Amino acid sequence: MDARTDTRTRTALPRALRLDTGALRGVVGFHIARASVTTVDSFDRHIGTPFSLSKVEFSVLLLLLANDDVSPKALAQALRITAPKLSLLLDRLQERGLLLRRPNPEDGRSQHLLLTRAGKQLATQTAAATQAMEAELNQRLSRAEHAMLIELLDKLAGASPA
Amino acid sequence: MDARTDTRTRTALPRALRLDTGALRGVVGFHIARASVTTVDSFDRHIGTPFSLSKVEFSVLLLLLANDDVSPKALAQALRITAPKLSLLLDRLQERGLLLRRPNPEDGRSQHLLLTRAGKQLATQTAAATQAMEAELNQRLSRAEHAMLIELLDKLAGASPA
DNA sequence: TATTGTTATACTCTATAACTATA
DNA sequence: TATAGTTATAGAGTATAACAATA
Hints:
- The structure is a homodimer of 162-residue chains.
- With 162 residues, chain A is mostly helical.
- The first copy, chain A, is 57% helix and 9% strand.
- Chain A has six helices and two strands.
- Chain A has helices at 28-51, 55-66, 72-79, 83-95, 117-137, 143-157; strands at residues 99-104, 107-115.
- Chain A has a two-stranded antiparallel sheet.
- In chain A, strand 1 and strand 2 (107-115) form a beta hairpin.
- Chain A is globular and about 55 Å long.
- The first copy, chain A, starts with 27 loop residues before the first helix and ends in a 5-residue tail after the last helix.
- The structure holds a DNA duplex (23 and 23 nucleotides).
């Protein structure tokens, strides 16, 4: 398929407008920033817009779907967001009837977060939607490259400090 | 008594609670977001803080160092930022004496951006600083993995390098 | 005294709309 | 009428500080 006939306009720039990346060529962070334009755009179309979820809200739903008795503290660490940010985010998800905050019986300061029936349903729907989202990326990456990319990104992110 | 030392109700599980990433495991965008925490932190320490530059400001300097007669329009497209955002960004760099805006003799609506002597010096300094920055990442990635990662990210971005 | 979670506030980044000047 | 660049405004996203409840 000719790149010129690609229907998505955000991805391909006319050759004349492409700049020499110069010293940025070897800077991983620069290439990550560029690639994230693609992934964020894909997320918005497949999940963000149709389900009215931000990237972090989506991540929260899927993490709660896969883990029991998660506290806000643990979530904030896993997602690298601050506690105040998460607090407001959980408020919004709770107002939408997607999750509940239950007191931790073993520690009155802490909470257990759990998805409601509607929350589990939405989480499952969005999890299914990731299939089409990743399949779209596989127009550019083979399945092996896709897996390799994730492996290298994880190495770069490093095992989160214990 | 410190709960940490109370072994009666604790299992052998470590305190560090890493969550199951669940359906996020195969989502490239999620891993990109995690990896960018590492690269942004590294950028801030090596370049952002010591040179008082944002990521985009740094990218502008290096792109202008590598390309002549660049217009704001071309820069905005290359960096995927909006024209108003770039306009304010160029104001700041100009106030710092790092670049100039010259009218395009062939089109009165357009401009040519060029680095001042100080701008070239700073761009060169930061370009040199990327060596240490990337070397630090190579504690986690071999040189081959580093190159492979950039190649895969470029494929994903659809910005095939020249 | 330390920790969990919340509220309040501010700062950055980014997007959209309206404006100008040129073509 | 269309394009390049600017100005103005508003909306997310994120960070820090102060607070309440519990350990």
